[in-house]
Amino acid sequence: MTSMQKGSSILGASVSRRRLLVGAGTAIAAASLFSPAVAKGGEVKIISNLGGAEQRAVLARVAAAYEAKTGVKVVINNMDHEAHKTAIRSYLAVGAPDICFWFSGNRMKTFVVRDMFDDISDLVAREGLADKLGVTLSAVTVDGKQYGLPMAGILWGLFYRKDVFAEKGWAPPKTYAEMLALGQSARSAGMAPMAMGTKELWPTGGFFDHLNLRINGLDKHMALMEGKVAYTDPMLKPVFDTWEELIKADFFSPNGSSFGWEQAGAMLAQKKAALMDLGGFVQSAFPKEERDQIAYAPFPELVSGMARYEDFSVNSIHIPKKAANKEGARDFLAFFYAPENLGDFIEAEGGIPPRNDCPPSKDALVNTAVEELKKVKGTAQYYDRDTDPDMAQEGMKGFQEFTIKPERREQILARLEKTRARVFK
Amino acid sequence: MYPRPIPEESPRARLFYMAGVALVLLLWLLPLCAVMLTSIKSTEEIMAGAYWTWPQRFSLIDNYTAVFTQTAMARFFLNSLIITVPSVILVLILSTLTGFVLARYRFPGNWLVFALFVGGNFLPAQIMMIPVRDLMVSLGLYDTFWALIIFHTAFQTGFATLFMRNFISALPDELFQAARAEGASPAQTLIHVVAPLMRPALAALAILTFTFVWNDYFWAVVLTQSDTVKPVTAGLNNLRGEWTSAWNIVAAATIVVAIPPVTMFFLMQRHFIAGLTMGAVKG
Amino acid sequence: MTSVWRRQLRRISPFLFILPGALLFGTVILLACVETVYISFHDWDGMGAMRWIGFGNYAELIADPQFYVSLKNNLIWLALFMLAPPLGLALALLVNQQIAGMRIVKSLFFMPLVLASVTVGLVFGWVYDPNFGLLALIVQAFGGEPPALLSDENTVTYAIVLAGLWPQVAFCMVLFLAGLNNLSSDLIGAGRVDGARGLAMFRHVVLPQLTQVSFIALAVSVIGALRSFDMIAVMTAGGPFGSSTVLAYQMYEQSIFSYRFGYGAAIATVLFVIMAAFITWYLLMMNRMERRG
């Protein structure tokens, strides 16, 4: 029983240390558990899912300005982008903040039909936003009523480094043949033709979208998203044929499923890959001083004569139905949505501003995207924003499997079809 | 002593032995060393893709300062303490009581109660996600410190009860017979007979519980949403999202998160082994 | 009067002692488990109304290929985690010496035990990275092609299990160190007098005394294998294409990403049943061991 003696001989020291720890802990707990949190003049509570430090800084600045102007306290809670997708379903039901960030389109509608977002048509009318928002208004409208305000728009497409393309004498591909040829040159230059990190699955959904939009067009694509077309439909054959051909030509960075988009972005930044299929936020993978090297090009044409349709996803901001301070939330939103404030906020993300009276962007990528958007005939949002979440999860998983094991195409599509039949019954 | 002690009079054997141990230790901690190395590298090197090479410029101060000044980690750190310390104390109290009763009193259902404690503890906690969230919501505790304190206390009490019961039933019967002969009440027996012997076991249990609660990530995400309540593990994951390519900052934050359990462990290491010896491992 | 009262108090005080813990554990943990079983008979998206569908979720589960992938991975986790006790014992034997500085060395060996599984997952994610990872670097140094362990459906689970074993071996090592501390020096001495050495000594004198601690190491390893959730979430999120999911992760994924709480609850219930078998075995073993002495 030597251990027992060992234990008790030094007991004195351990107890006092423990007491100290306990004492400190209780004091801290008492101080913070019971301190009053609500300031005079009410408060507006916001939950944000913003990833970028710059964006958070702009939001904090706007909130501080609003506090100074009105005396109303603005409390901002930042959540991890992915964790927030889970948490929103809890907090909309209980413990709702006054304002939250989310995504427009089908993802917003999920909560609208469950009566969890407040109808803010009054705010839209009062601020006269209908004229200033243009197309993005429809992304937050259900049955003629607005349930949120559109935030940054992301135009998806190909991104590359100007210096690399200039040095190698490459041009962004306009056709499928050029795409394959570029792939060949990139590989012989020791680079991956396209960086793609699918650990978080969604990049596969985007790539599928872009193939399908180029091959089958917007209407058929949306029919698939809404569950009206089978995944075993012959219309998808050329889509997967093309994809398979690219995979077999080693078009994508190897081992894509072991890393996320950030690392894929880093490959582009470090000149290890020629292209990347993403949104303007790819710039966050670049060091600040190299961001002016990033250039955008539309996804190449695959079927000649097909009109140009793109993925254009729009984030949004909402007032939960169960918010405690709906009036305060409206007032803050009006302030936040003023062109200068909104402009700063969107600029920090490299997104496309939803209102047409925001100050012009200093970001060349954004201006390109704004110009490009004018040439687009119609837009979808993104695979996992357009289709049912359950379907999206299975779908993207299937696409990921396809990128690794293209020979399993039949099984994968049969499985997706089974899911579609279950989800859209 | 087993294995046979390496004799003191043979310095060469000792040297040989220590070198061998050092080698194994190095391999054993290689991943951790690599993270420490990353945590002192400059952002430029990381951006350039030099992850595992020896740093050209040391940014130890910069990176660790960034963790505390440019992120809310300090706040999360405090939150974690506010959640962990009361949970550990409550677990120790409750499990001493339950363990004592289950070890020393025969009553109908004793075995069943014990089996339920043990059984509940073996279940993967994710199973309880939805009902626990709903429960906290209906109690009005969702997104407060109490939600996490109550859940962790309840869940850890399962394992702790198993531990304390084993420990107390390993104590010699004579102690309790003597106490009974002197007419001591159960409370007196607990306080005067059991408690003094139990301190090393409590130390061991405290370290384990502290580690489990401090390191929890899952419930942090399920039961909290505000920055004022969120513990440090959830904060670490926020950081991963926010500093996507800044491995050095994330690595530094990772090290920072590990400091309290490691410190706690080093401070109480001797009691830990002693406590396990008595609690989990009957002599 | 007072003595009657005191006798009453004495009789009910064990009950009073056990009440707070039992109540808390019962309402939070056990009730939650029961409720999960109840939810598993419903079609529910976590927000709207619940619709009773009887065994519908279970019928679907039996036909779900993903379920069998998860089940298989759970078994791999369990099987490989059985390596933790012997490895922990080996390390414990290595460092169980009283030499200046050994205490620090032991503490360093325990380090992985106190790290958050989020941290361990993060660290090993970096180690396995096929482009920049430590493993890739080492393999390249020997002229090999760096393997992408986490994107190959055949290796991914093993790679995560290896990461999971790291803290688990440390835990077992701590337990065995405690066990070695407690060996009867009389028996060891007697063994040495009888000329027992090496393997014979270990098998016939040391191991029998470590039965109890081995049993506990085994039990914590089973629990550890079931706590695989965090590691999988951080390292692969179940990928590639669901090939590294275990039942706990599949349940989480179905509930959270696919909004199918009923189906998720059904998976949880199956896991519950599997565990019940193990728990029963564990309790029986414990009971038997206690009756023996």
UniProtKB/TrEMBL annotation, chain A:
<dbReference type="InterPro" id="IPR006059">
    <property type="entry name" value="SBP"/>
</dbReference>
<keyword id="KW-0574">Periplasm</keyword>
<dbReference type="GO" id="GO:0042597">
    <property type="term" value="C:periplasmic space"/>
</dbReference>
<dbReference type="InterPro" id="IPR050490">
    <property type="entry name" value="Bact_solute-bd_prot1"/>
</dbReference>
<comment type="similarity">
    <text>Belongs to the bacterial solute-binding protein 1 family.</text>
</comment>
<protein>
    <submittedName>
        <fullName>ABC transporter substrate-binding protein</fullName>
    </submittedName>
</protein>
<dbReference type="InterPro" id="IPR006311">
    <property type="entry name" value="TAT_signal"/>
</dbReference>
<dbReference type="Pfam" id="PF01547">
    <property type="entry name" value="SBP_bac_1"/>
</dbReference>
From TrEMBL, chain B:
<comment type="subunit">
    <text>The complex is composed of two ATP-binding proteins (UgpC), two transmembrane proteins (UgpA and UgpE) and a solute-binding protein (UgpB).</text>
</comment>
<keyword id="KW-0813">Transport</keyword>
<dbReference type="GO" id="GO:0005886">
    <property type="term" value="C:plasma membrane"/>
</dbReference>
<dbReference type="Pfam" id="PF00528">
    <property type="entry name" value="BPD_transp_1"/>
</dbReference>
<protein>
    <recommendedName>
        <fullName>sn-glycerol-3-phosphate transport system permease protein UgpE</fullName>
    </recommendedName>
</protein>
<comment type="function">
    <text>Part of the ABC transporter complex UgpBAEC involved in sn-glycerol-3-phosphate (G3P) import. Probably responsible for the translocation of the substrate across the membrane.</text>
</comment>
<dbReference type="InterPro" id="IPR000515">
    <property type="entry name" value="MetI-like"/>
</dbReference>
<keyword id="KW-0812">Transmembrane</keyword>
<keyword id="KW-0472">Membrane</keyword>
<dbReference type="GO" id="GO:0055085">
    <property type="term" value="P:transmembrane transport"/>
</dbReference>
<dbReference type="InterPro" id="IPR035906">
    <property type="entry name" value="MetI-like_sf"/>
</dbReference>
<feature type="transmembrane region" description="Helical">
    <location>
        <begin position="15"/>
        <end position="37"/>
    </location>
</feature>
<feature type="transmembrane region" description="Helical">
    <location>
        <begin position="110"/>
        <end position="132"/>
    </location>
</feature>
<comment type="similarity">
    <text>Belongs to the binding-protein-dependent transport system permease family.</text>
</comment>
<feature type="transmembrane region" description="Helical">
    <location>
        <begin position="189"/>
        <end position="214"/>
    </location>
</feature>
Automatic annotation (TrEMBL), chain C:
<keyword id="KW-1133">Transmembrane helix</keyword>
<keyword id="KW-1003">Cell membrane</keyword>
<dbReference type="InterPro" id="IPR051393">
    <property type="entry name" value="ABC_transporter_permease"/>
</dbReference>
<dbReference type="Pfam" id="PF00528">
    <property type="entry name" value="BPD_transp_1"/>
</dbReference>
<dbReference type="InterPro" id="IPR000515">
    <property type="entry name" value="MetI-like"/>
</dbReference>
<feature type="transmembrane region" description="Helical">
    <location>
        <begin position="231"/>
        <end position="249"/>
    </location>
</feature>
<feature type="transmembrane region" description="Helical">
    <location>
        <begin position="107"/>
        <end position="128"/>
    </location>
</feature>
<keyword id="KW-0813">Transport</keyword>
<feature type="domain" description="ABC transmembrane type-1">
    <location>
        <begin position="70"/>
        <end position="284"/>
    </location>
</feature>
<feature type="transmembrane region" description="Helical">
    <location>
        <begin position="261"/>
        <end position="284"/>
    </location>
</feature>
<feature type="transmembrane region" description="Helical">
    <location>
        <begin position="156"/>
        <end position="180"/>
    </location>
</feature>
<protein>
    <submittedName>
        <fullName>Sugar ABC transporter permease</fullName>
    </submittedName>
</protein>
<dbReference type="GO" id="GO:0005886">
    <property type="term" value="C:plasma membrane"/>
</dbReference>
<feature type="transmembrane region" description="Helical">
    <location>
        <begin position="201"/>
        <end position="225"/>
    </location>
</feature>
<dbReference type="GO" id="GO:0055085">
    <property type="term" value="P:transmembrane transport"/>
</dbReference>
